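Hi R.,

Quick one: here's the FAD-dependent monooxygenase sequence you asked about.
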Amino acid sequence: MSSQRSVAIVGAGLGGLACARILQLRNIPVVVYEREASMSARQQGGSLDMHPDTGFAVLEMAQLADEFKKVARYEDQGIKLIGMDGTLHFDSEAGDHWDTEDDGNRPEVDRIQLRQIFLDALTPDTVKWGQGVSKVVEKDNKVTVHFIDSALEPAVHDFVVGADGAWSRVRPAISPAVPEYSGMIYIDNFIKDVQKKYPHLADFLKSGIALVLGDNKGLISQRNANDVVRVYSAFRKPTSWPEEVGLKALVDGGRWDEANQLLLKQYEGWNTPATGYFQVPPFSMDIRPLYALRHHSWDTNAHMTLVGDAHMVAPPNGVGANYAMLDGAELGVVIAENVSANEEEWLKAIKAYENKIQQRAWASQNEEFSFGLMISEGDSAARAAATLKQAFAAAAQK
Ligand SMILES: Cc1cc2nc3c(=O)[nH]c(=O)nc-3n(C[C@H](O)[C@H](O)[C@H](O)COP(=O)(O)OP(=O)(O)OC[C@H]3O[C@@H](n4cnc5c(N)ncnc54)[C@H](O)[C@@H]3O)c2cc1C
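And here's the predicted structure, written out as C-alpha coordinates:
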Protein backbone atom coordinates (compact mmCIF):
# COMPACT_ATOMS: atom_id res chain seq x y z
CA MET A 1 0.00 0.00 0.00
CA SER A 2 1.72 3.18 -1.10
CA SER A 3 -0.91 5.75 -0.05
CA GLN A 4 -2.39 6.29 3.38
CA ARG A 5 -5.39 4.20 4.37
CA SER A 6 -8.56 6.22 4.96
CA VAL A 7 -9.90 5.62 8.48
CA ALA A 8 -13.41 5.86 9.91
CA ILE A 9 -14.55 5.25 13.47
CA VAL A 10 -18.10 4.16 14.27
CA GLY A 11 -19.18 5.51 17.67
CA ALA A 12 -18.20 8.67 19.56
CA GLY A 13 -18.05 7.06 23.00
CA LEU A 14 -14.85 7.25 25.04
CA GLY A 15 -13.11 4.52 23.01
CA GLY A 16 -13.86 6.09 19.63
CA LEU A 17 -13.03 9.62 20.79
CA ALA A 18 -9.70 8.57 22.32
CA CYS A 19 -8.76 6.85 19.06
CA ALA A 20 -9.75 9.91 16.99
CA ARG A 21 -7.77 12.28 19.22
CA ILE A 22 -4.57 10.21 19.01
CA LEU A 23 -4.94 9.99 15.21
CA GLN A 24 -5.40 13.74 14.88
CA LEU A 25 -2.40 14.44 17.12
CA ARG A 26 -0.42 12.44 14.57
CA ASN A 27 -2.01 14.20 11.59
CA ILE A 28 -3.99 11.20 10.39
CA PRO A 29 -7.36 12.21 8.89
CA VAL A 30 -10.32 10.51 10.55
CA VAL A 31 -14.09 10.73 10.58
CA VAL A 32 -16.34 9.53 13.43
CA TYR A 33 -19.92 8.42 12.67
CA GLU A 34 -22.19 8.75 15.70
CA ARG A 35 -25.79 7.57 15.97
CA GLU A 36 -26.89 10.13 18.54
CA ALA A 37 -28.10 13.48 17.23
CA SER A 38 -25.90 15.46 19.60
CA MET A 39 -23.92 15.26 22.79
CA SER A 40 -27.06 16.01 24.81
CA ALA A 41 -29.31 13.51 23.04
CA ARG A 42 -29.51 11.15 26.02
CA GLN A 43 -28.59 10.71 29.64
CA GLN A 44 -24.84 10.21 29.66
CA GLY A 45 -24.59 7.92 32.68
CA GLY A 46 -22.77 8.49 35.93
CA SER A 47 -19.32 9.17 37.21
CA LEU A 48 -16.21 7.22 36.18
CA ASP A 49 -12.95 6.84 38.04
CA MET A 50 -9.84 7.24 35.93
CA HIS A 51 -7.11 4.73 36.76
CA PRO A 52 -3.47 5.86 36.59
CA ASP A 53 -2.24 3.22 34.15
CA THR A 54 -5.28 3.20 31.83
CA GLY A 55 -7.79 6.08 31.63
CA PHE A 56 -5.46 8.71 33.06
CA ALA A 57 -2.51 7.43 31.00
CA VAL A 58 -4.67 7.95 27.90
CA LEU A 59 -5.51 11.50 28.95
CA GLU A 60 -1.78 12.16 29.16
CA MET A 61 -1.14 10.56 25.75
CA ALA A 62 -3.96 12.70 24.37
CA GLN A 63 -2.44 15.84 25.97
CA LEU A 64 -5.65 16.39 27.87
CA ALA A 65 -4.57 15.69 31.46
CA ASP A 66 -4.65 19.38 32.37
CA GLU A 67 -8.19 19.78 31.05
CA PHE A 68 -9.18 16.68 32.98
CA LYS A 69 -7.71 17.96 36.24
CA LYS A 70 -9.93 21.05 36.01
CA VAL A 71 -13.05 18.87 36.47
CA ALA A 72 -11.65 15.77 38.21
CA ARG A 73 -13.06 15.08 41.65
CA TYR A 74 -10.19 13.75 43.75
CA GLU A 75 -12.45 14.06 46.78
CA ASP A 76 -14.93 11.45 45.49
CA GLN A 77 -12.84 8.30 45.63
CA GLY A 78 -14.46 6.86 48.75
CA ILE A 79 -16.22 3.49 48.76
CA LYS A 80 -18.53 2.02 51.39
CA LEU A 81 -19.99 -1.50 51.52
CA ILE A 82 -23.05 -1.82 53.74
CA GLY A 83 -25.24 -4.81 54.62
CA MET A 84 -29.04 -4.94 54.39
CA ASP A 85 -29.18 -4.56 58.19
CA GLY A 86 -27.13 -1.37 58.03
CA THR A 87 -23.79 -2.90 59.10
CA LEU A 88 -20.88 -0.98 57.61
CA HIS A 89 -18.48 -3.67 56.34
CA PHE A 90 -16.01 -1.53 54.44
CA ASP A 91 -15.32 2.20 54.51
CA SER A 92 -12.29 3.61 52.73
CA GLU A 93 -12.73 6.93 54.56
CA ALA A 94 -12.48 5.17 57.92
CA GLY A 95 -9.22 3.41 57.22
CA ASP A 96 -10.05 0.59 54.79
CA HIS A 97 -7.46 1.61 52.20
CA TRP A 98 -5.80 -0.38 49.50
CA ASP A 99 -2.37 1.05 50.29
CA THR A 100 -0.95 0.81 46.83
CA GLU A 101 0.23 3.58 44.56
CA ASP A 102 -3.34 3.69 43.17
CA ASP A 103 -4.63 4.75 46.59
CA GLY A 104 -6.14 8.22 46.27
CA ASN A 105 -5.09 8.25 42.65
CA ARG A 106 -8.31 7.35 40.92
CA PRO A 107 -10.18 10.65 40.58
CA GLU A 108 -13.80 10.69 39.47
CA VAL A 109 -15.25 12.56 36.55
CA ASP A 110 -18.74 12.67 35.07
CA ARG A 111 -18.86 10.83 31.76
CA ILE A 112 -20.41 13.85 30.05
CA GLN A 113 -17.49 16.04 31.12
CA LEU A 114 -14.91 13.51 29.97
CA ARG A 115 -16.55 13.08 26.61
CA GLN A 116 -16.73 16.85 26.20
CA ILE A 117 -12.99 17.19 26.85
CA PHE A 118 -12.25 14.84 23.94
CA LEU A 119 -14.88 16.45 21.69
CA ASP A 120 -13.48 19.94 22.32
CA ALA A 121 -10.00 18.72 21.39
CA LEU A 122 -11.03 17.27 18.02
CA THR A 123 -11.03 19.44 14.93
CA PRO A 124 -14.52 20.81 14.23
CA ASP A 125 -16.83 18.49 12.32
CA THR A 126 -14.81 15.34 13.03
CA VAL A 127 -17.88 13.75 14.61
CA LYS A 128 -20.81 13.28 12.24
CA TRP A 129 -23.75 13.42 14.66
CA GLY A 130 -26.96 11.65 13.73
CA GLN A 131 -25.16 9.30 11.32
CA GLY A 132 -25.94 5.92 12.87
CA VAL A 133 -24.46 2.98 11.02
CA SER A 134 -26.73 0.10 10.02
CA LYS A 135 -24.04 -2.24 8.68
CA VAL A 136 -20.59 -2.41 7.15
CA VAL A 137 -19.77 -4.48 4.08
CA GLU A 138 -16.28 -5.48 3.00
CA LYS A 139 -15.61 -5.81 -0.73
CA ASP A 140 -12.54 -5.42 -2.95
CA ASN A 141 -10.29 -4.35 -0.06
CA LYS A 142 -12.65 -1.55 0.96
CA VAL A 143 -15.38 -1.24 3.56
CA THR A 144 -18.70 0.38 2.72
CA VAL A 145 -20.42 1.96 5.69
CA HIS A 146 -24.23 2.01 5.38
CA PHE A 147 -26.31 4.38 7.46
CA ILE A 148 -29.59 3.87 9.32
CA ASP A 149 -30.88 7.00 7.58
CA SER A 150 -31.22 5.73 4.04
CA ALA A 151 -31.06 9.30 2.72
CA LEU A 152 -27.36 9.32 3.62
CA GLU A 153 -25.01 8.14 0.90
CA PRO A 154 -22.96 5.07 2.01
CA ALA A 155 -19.31 5.96 2.74
CA VAL A 156 -16.29 3.94 1.59
CA HIS A 157 -13.12 3.58 3.69
CA ASP A 158 -9.99 1.44 3.81
CA PHE A 159 -10.26 0.78 7.55
CA VAL A 160 -13.22 0.97 9.94
CA VAL A 161 -13.00 0.91 13.73
CA GLY A 162 -16.03 -0.46 15.57
CA ALA A 163 -16.24 1.70 18.71
CA ASP A 164 -20.01 1.45 18.81
CA GLY A 165 -20.51 -0.34 22.11
CA ALA A 166 -22.21 -3.55 23.15
CA TRP A 167 -24.54 -3.79 20.15
CA SER A 168 -21.91 -2.90 17.59
CA ARG A 169 -22.91 -2.90 13.92
CA VAL A 170 -19.28 -3.39 12.91
CA ARG A 171 -18.70 -6.52 15.01
CA PRO A 172 -21.00 -8.84 12.98
CA ALA A 173 -18.76 -8.29 9.94
CA ILE A 174 -15.79 -9.89 11.73
CA SER A 175 -17.22 -11.99 14.56
CA PRO A 176 -20.39 -14.05 15.14
CA ALA A 177 -20.27 -13.34 18.90
CA VAL A 178 -23.35 -11.80 20.52
CA PRO A 179 -23.44 -10.48 24.12
CA GLU A 180 -25.26 -12.70 26.60
CA TYR A 181 -27.52 -11.54 29.41
CA SER A 182 -25.51 -11.46 32.64
CA GLY A 183 -28.51 -12.20 34.86
CA MET A 184 -28.52 -8.71 36.32
CA ILE A 185 -30.59 -5.59 35.76
CA TYR A 186 -29.90 -2.02 36.82
CA ILE A 187 -32.65 0.53 37.25
CA ASP A 188 -30.81 3.76 36.91
CA ASN A 189 -32.03 7.17 38.06
CA PHE A 190 -30.59 10.39 39.37
CA ILE A 191 -31.52 13.03 41.91
CA LYS A 192 -30.58 16.72 41.72
CA ASP A 193 -29.77 19.25 44.45
CA VAL A 194 -29.13 16.52 46.99
CA GLN A 195 -27.08 18.52 49.47
CA LYS A 196 -29.42 21.46 49.11
CA LYS A 197 -32.79 19.69 49.33
CA TYR A 198 -32.11 16.29 50.93
CA PRO A 199 -29.21 16.72 53.38
CA HIS A 200 -30.07 13.40 55.12
CA LEU A 201 -29.28 11.57 51.85
CA ALA A 202 -26.15 13.63 51.28
CA ASP A 203 -25.03 12.75 54.81
CA PHE A 204 -25.56 9.07 54.18
CA LEU A 205 -23.47 9.02 51.00
CA LYS A 206 -20.98 11.75 51.90
CA SER A 207 -18.61 11.21 48.96
CA GLY A 208 -17.76 8.58 46.37
CA ILE A 209 -19.94 5.49 46.17
CA ALA A 210 -22.03 3.54 48.70
CA LEU A 211 -23.15 -0.01 47.95
CA VAL A 212 -25.87 -1.52 50.13
CA LEU A 213 -25.98 -5.19 49.22
CA GLY A 214 -27.80 -8.41 50.07
CA ASP A 215 -30.23 -11.11 48.93
CA ASN A 216 -29.37 -10.83 45.23
CA LYS A 217 -30.04 -7.09 45.27
CA GLY A 218 -28.09 -3.89 45.54
CA LEU A 219 -28.84 -0.25 46.16
CA ILE A 220 -25.87 1.64 44.82
CA SER A 221 -25.50 5.40 45.02
CA GLN A 222 -22.76 7.49 43.55
CA ARG A 223 -21.98 11.17 43.94
CA ASN A 224 -21.68 13.03 40.65
CA ALA A 225 -20.66 16.62 39.92
CA ASN A 226 -23.00 19.55 40.60
CA ASP A 227 -24.82 18.10 43.63
CA VAL A 228 -26.25 15.16 41.67
CA VAL A 229 -26.52 11.63 43.06
CA ARG A 230 -26.98 8.72 40.70
CA VAL A 231 -28.83 5.73 42.09
CA TYR A 232 -28.66 2.22 40.68
CA SER A 233 -31.17 -0.34 41.96
CA ALA A 234 -29.59 -3.67 41.04
CA PHE A 235 -31.39 -6.99 40.83
CA ARG A 236 -30.48 -10.52 39.88
CA LYS A 237 -33.64 -11.26 37.89
CA PRO A 238 -34.65 -12.46 34.43
CA THR A 239 -34.89 -9.83 31.68
CA SER A 240 -38.67 -10.26 31.64
CA TRP A 241 -38.98 -9.14 35.30
CA PRO A 242 -39.51 -5.37 34.79
CA GLU A 243 -42.37 -6.11 32.41
CA GLU A 244 -43.89 -8.81 34.61
CA VAL A 245 -44.10 -6.59 37.69
CA GLY A 246 -45.30 -3.52 35.77
CA LEU A 247 -42.07 -1.57 36.26
CA LYS A 248 -41.38 -1.22 32.54
CA ALA A 249 -44.77 0.38 31.87
CA LEU A 250 -44.22 2.88 34.70
CA VAL A 251 -40.69 3.77 33.59
CA ASP A 252 -41.57 4.03 29.89
CA GLY A 253 -44.67 6.06 30.75
CA GLY A 254 -42.65 8.57 32.81
CA ARG A 255 -44.56 7.57 35.99
CA TRP A 256 -41.33 7.60 37.95
CA ASP A 257 -42.78 8.33 41.39
CA GLU A 258 -44.91 5.18 41.09
CA ALA A 259 -41.90 3.28 39.76
CA ASN A 260 -40.01 4.42 42.86
CA GLN A 261 -42.75 3.04 45.13
CA LEU A 262 -42.54 -0.29 43.34
CA LEU A 263 -38.76 -0.31 43.73
CA LEU A 264 -39.02 0.62 47.40
CA LYS A 265 -41.13 -2.51 47.99
CA GLN A 266 -38.25 -4.67 46.72
CA TYR A 267 -36.15 -3.48 49.66
CA GLU A 268 -38.72 -4.17 52.38
CA GLY A 269 -37.00 -4.94 55.68
CA TRP A 270 -33.74 -3.22 54.71
CA ASN A 271 -32.41 -0.97 57.42
CA THR A 272 -30.63 1.75 55.51
CA PRO A 273 -31.17 5.47 54.83
CA ALA A 274 -30.48 4.58 51.17
CA THR A 275 -34.12 3.55 50.70
CA GLY A 276 -34.85 7.27 51.16
CA TYR A 277 -33.70 7.74 47.55
CA PHE A 278 -37.06 6.31 46.48
CA GLN A 279 -38.97 8.97 48.43
CA VAL A 280 -37.71 11.91 46.36
CA PRO A 281 -38.49 12.75 42.73
CA PRO A 282 -36.02 11.36 40.19
CA PHE A 283 -34.94 13.27 37.08
CA SER A 284 -34.65 10.30 34.77
CA MET A 285 -35.19 6.59 34.93
CA ASP A 286 -33.86 3.82 32.71
CA ILE A 287 -33.99 0.05 32.84
CA ARG A 288 -30.65 -1.50 31.88
CA PRO A 289 -30.34 -5.27 31.59
CA LEU A 290 -26.57 -5.93 31.74
CA TYR A 291 -24.92 -7.99 29.01
CA ALA A 292 -21.49 -9.55 28.69
CA LEU A 293 -19.19 -10.73 25.94
CA ARG A 294 -16.65 -12.96 27.62
CA HIS A 295 -13.33 -14.27 26.32
CA HIS A 296 -14.13 -12.93 22.90
CA SER A 297 -11.68 -13.29 20.01
CA TRP A 298 -11.95 -13.16 16.24
CA ASP A 299 -9.82 -13.66 13.13
CA THR A 300 -7.93 -10.50 12.28
CA ASN A 301 -9.33 -8.64 9.30
CA ALA A 302 -7.21 -6.06 7.45
CA HIS A 303 -10.13 -3.66 7.11
CA MET A 304 -11.90 -3.63 10.47
CA THR A 305 -11.28 -3.95 14.15
CA LEU A 306 -12.98 -3.20 17.48
CA VAL A 307 -12.36 -1.15 20.62
CA GLY A 308 -14.00 -1.08 24.04
CA ASP A 309 -17.44 -2.53 24.72
CA ALA A 310 -17.81 -3.61 21.10
CA HIS A 311 -15.39 -6.44 21.91
CA MET A 312 -15.57 -6.76 25.70
CA VAL A 313 -18.81 -5.46 27.22
CA ALA A 314 -19.21 -6.58 30.85
CA PRO A 315 -21.39 -5.70 33.84
CA PRO A 316 -19.82 -2.70 35.60
CA ASN A 317 -16.49 -3.80 37.06
CA GLY A 318 -14.74 -0.45 37.21
CA VAL A 319 -12.57 -0.85 34.13
CA GLY A 320 -14.86 -0.70 31.05
CA ALA A 321 -14.43 2.99 30.23
CA ASN A 322 -10.76 2.94 31.22
CA TYR A 323 -10.08 0.00 28.93
CA ALA A 324 -12.16 1.44 26.08
CA MET A 325 -10.02 4.58 26.21
CA LEU A 326 -6.82 2.56 26.30
CA ASP A 327 -7.93 0.34 23.41
CA GLY A 328 -8.78 3.45 21.39
CA ALA A 329 -5.52 5.23 22.15
CA GLU A 330 -3.36 2.17 21.50
CA LEU A 331 -5.16 1.53 18.23
CA GLY A 332 -4.63 5.16 17.25
CA VAL A 333 -0.88 4.73 17.70
CA VAL A 334 -0.86 1.45 15.73
CA ILE A 335 -2.81 2.99 12.85
CA ALA A 336 -0.63 6.11 12.77
CA GLU A 337 2.59 4.11 12.75
CA ASN A 338 1.43 1.72 10.03
CA VAL A 339 -1.04 3.72 7.99
CA SER A 340 0.98 3.33 4.78
CA ALA A 341 2.46 -0.10 5.53
CA ASN A 342 2.14 -3.00 3.10
CA GLU A 343 -0.63 -5.55 3.66
CA GLU A 344 1.56 -8.00 5.52
CA GLU A 345 2.97 -5.43 7.97
CA TRP A 346 -0.43 -3.85 8.47
CA LEU A 347 -2.13 -7.16 9.26
CA LYS A 348 0.66 -8.02 11.68
CA ALA A 349 0.22 -4.71 13.49
CA ILE A 350 -3.56 -5.05 13.77
CA LYS A 351 -3.21 -8.64 14.98
CA ALA A 352 -0.75 -7.58 17.68
CA TYR A 353 -3.16 -4.84 18.80
CA GLU A 354 -6.05 -7.31 18.98
CA ASN A 355 -4.04 -9.87 20.95
CA LYS A 356 -3.16 -7.20 23.47
CA ILE A 357 -6.70 -5.88 23.99
CA GLN A 358 -8.14 -9.39 24.18
CA GLN A 359 -5.64 -10.52 26.82
CA ARG A 360 -6.38 -7.41 28.85
CA ALA A 361 -10.14 -7.91 28.60
CA TRP A 362 -9.98 -11.60 29.48
CA ALA A 363 -7.85 -10.92 32.55
CA SER A 364 -10.41 -8.41 33.83
CA GLN A 365 -13.18 -10.93 33.24
CA ASN A 366 -11.34 -13.44 35.41
CA GLU A 367 -11.06 -11.09 38.32
CA GLU A 368 -12.77 -12.27 41.45
CA PHE A 369 -14.21 -9.05 42.72
CA SER A 370 -17.04 -8.31 40.39
CA PHE A 371 -20.60 -7.21 40.26
CA GLY A 372 -21.60 -10.90 40.17
CA LEU A 373 -20.13 -11.42 43.62
CA MET A 374 -21.77 -8.31 45.02
CA ILE A 375 -25.27 -9.07 43.77
CA SER A 376 -25.51 -12.54 45.25
CA GLU A 377 -27.41 -14.45 47.93
CA GLY A 378 -27.58 -13.65 51.64
CA ASP A 379 -25.10 -11.26 53.22
CA SER A 380 -23.24 -10.42 50.05
CA ALA A 381 -21.93 -7.14 51.51
CA ALA A 382 -19.87 -9.02 54.11
CA ARG A 383 -18.49 -11.39 51.46
CA ALA A 384 -17.71 -8.58 49.03
CA ALA A 385 -15.96 -6.59 51.79
CA ALA A 386 -13.82 -9.59 52.76
CA THR A 387 -12.84 -10.19 49.13
CA LEU A 388 -12.09 -6.52 48.61
CA LYS A 389 -9.86 -6.37 51.69
CA GLN A 390 -8.00 -9.50 50.56
CA ALA A 391 -7.53 -8.10 47.05
CA PHE A 392 -6.20 -4.81 48.41
CA ALA A 393 -3.88 -6.58 50.82
CA ALA A 394 -2.50 -8.66 47.94
CA ALA A 395 -2.09 -5.56 45.77
CA ALA A 396 -0.25 -3.75 48.57
CA GLN A 397 2.29 -6.61 48.77
CA LYS A 398 3.18 -6.35 45.07
C1 LIG B 1 -24.11 1.56 34.97
C2 LIG B 1 -22.71 1.51 34.45
C3 LIG B 1 -21.67 2.01 35.23
C4 LIG B 1 -20.35 1.94 34.75
N1 LIG B 1 -19.35 2.44 35.52
C5 LIG B 1 -18.06 2.40 35.08
C6 LIG B 1 -16.98 2.91 35.85
O1 LIG B 1 -17.16 3.41 36.96
N2 LIG B 1 -15.72 2.83 35.34
C7 LIG B 1 -15.48 2.31 34.11
O2 LIG B 1 -14.31 2.27 33.68
N3 LIG B 1 -16.48 1.81 33.35
C8 LIG B 1 -17.77 1.84 33.79
N4 LIG B 1 -18.77 1.34 33.03
C9 LIG B 1 -18.47 0.74 31.72
C10 LIG B 1 -18.34 1.82 30.65
O3 LIG B 1 -19.49 2.64 30.65
C11 LIG B 1 -18.18 1.21 29.25
O4 LIG B 1 -17.28 0.14 29.30
C12 LIG B 1 -17.66 2.29 28.27
O5 LIG B 1 -18.62 3.31 28.12
C13 LIG B 1 -17.36 1.70 26.91
O6 LIG B 1 -16.98 2.72 26.04
P1 LIG B 1 -17.12 2.54 24.47
O7 LIG B 1 -16.63 3.79 23.87
O8 LIG B 1 -16.52 1.25 24.08
O9 LIG B 1 -18.69 2.35 24.23
P2 LIG B 1 -19.91 3.30 24.54
O10 LIG B 1 -19.66 4.16 25.71
O11 LIG B 1 -21.11 2.40 24.56
O12 LIG B 1 -19.99 4.25 23.28
C14 LIG B 1 -20.45 3.76 22.05
C15 LIG B 1 -20.87 4.94 21.18
O13 LIG B 1 -21.28 4.43 19.90
C16 LIG B 1 -22.52 4.99 19.54
N5 LIG B 1 -23.21 4.02 18.68
C17 LIG B 1 -23.83 2.88 19.05
N6 LIG B 1 -24.32 2.24 17.98
C18 LIG B 1 -23.99 3.01 16.91
C19 LIG B 1 -24.23 2.87 15.51
N7 LIG B 1 -24.89 1.82 15.02
N8 LIG B 1 -23.75 3.83 14.69
C20 LIG B 1 -23.05 4.90 15.18
N9 LIG B 1 -22.81 5.07 16.50
C21 LIG B 1 -23.29 4.14 17.34
C22 LIG B 1 -23.23 5.24 20.86
O14 LIG B 1 -24.26 6.21 20.71
C23 LIG B 1 -22.08 5.72 21.73
O15 LIG B 1 -21.86 7.10 21.62
C24 LIG B 1 -20.09 1.37 33.49
C25 LIG B 1 -21.14 0.86 32.71
C26 LIG B 1 -22.45 0.94 33.19
C27 LIG B 1 -23.58 0.36 32.35
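Residues 343-366 form the longest helix (24 residues).

Cheers,
M.
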